[in-house]
From TrEMBL:
Enzyme class of the recorded protein, top EC level: transferase
Domain Thiamine phosphate synthase/TenI: 8-189
Binding locations of 2-[(2R,5Z)-2-carboxy-4-methylthiazol-5(2H)-ylidene]ethyl phosphate: T135, L136, S137, G166, I186, S187
Ligand binding (Mg(2+)): D72, D91
Organism: Jeotgalicoccus coquinae
Similarity remark: Belongs to the thiamine-phosphate synthase family.
Pathway in which this enzyme or protein is active: Cofactor biosynthesis; thiamine diphosphate biosynthesis; thiamine phosphate from 4-amino-2-methyl-5-diphosphomethylpyrimidine and 4-methyl-5-(2-phosphoethyl)-thiazole: step 1/1
Cofactor names: Mg(2+)
UniProt-recorded name of the protein: Thiamine-phosphate synthase
Length: 204
């Protein structure tokens, strides 16, 4: 895969924004390169309502040339013909994903060398490494590994990498300096009062 896709990777649910489709379009237009729909947490959509929403998001992604990833939900990713899927250490083994994903992007979360070395990477396209900094956006994120931990993992893989966890306008450059090909953000954009301005700043 083209590692440039990972440069500014937004993760959000339908409940992350006041006006999700409008706010996502603002973010995409400003330069977000990849979007992961992670429909977890409070006030989320389910069933056909979620599928319909995901299809609308896919249309936006296509319009702005943004790569569209689904978090963990194999059936939803197939139903909306997403560009790929992202899975965690406790989700489905990458080797067990259906044939649909043979030519799709498969992302895998890793937080330390043990996870990296024990993961089956034959079908994995990129690694999401972290949490680099402390984060409240994901309750299951684990202990922050810092930029030293990020650099260690980057140096032990040939796969493209994106850093995740507590990343802001103030610290994102440290992730890039320590070898990550891109950054994943959640609250930095979903909690921004000026999405366009924040996206622009994160792309500097």
């Amino acid at each position: 895969m083209n590692k440039d896709i990972l440069r500014l990777y937004l993760i959000a649910s339908s409940a992350s924004f006041k006006n999700p489709l409008k706010d996502l379009e603002t973010a995409f237009n400003a330069g977000v390169t990849c979007f992961q729909l992670r429909e977890k947490g409070a006030d989320i959509k389910r069933g056909q309502v979620l599928t319909d929403f995901a299809r609308e998001v896919k249309k936006l992604c296509s319009r702005y040339n943004v790569t569209f990833i689904i978090n963990d939900d194999v059936k939803l990713a197939e139903a909306v013909e997403a560009d790929g899927i992202h899975i965690g250490q406790d989700d489905i083994n990458p080797d067990m994903l259906p044939e649909y994903f043979n030519n799709k992007i498969i992302g895998l979360s890793v937080g330390n060398l043990t996870e990296l070395k024990s993961s089956s990477l034959a079908r994995v396209s990129y690694l999401g490494i972290g949490p680099v900094f402390s984060t409240l956006s994901k309750s299951d994120a684990g202990e922050a590994i810092g930029t030293d931990g990020l650099r260690e993992l980057v140096n032990h893989t040939e796969l493209p990498t994106t850093a995740i966890g507590g990343i802001t306008e103030k610290n994102y450059k440290e992730c890039l300096k320590n070898g990550a090909d891109g950054i994943c953000v959640i609250s930095a954009i979903t909690g921004s009062d000026n999405i366009e301005q924040t996206v622009t700043a994160l792309l500097q």
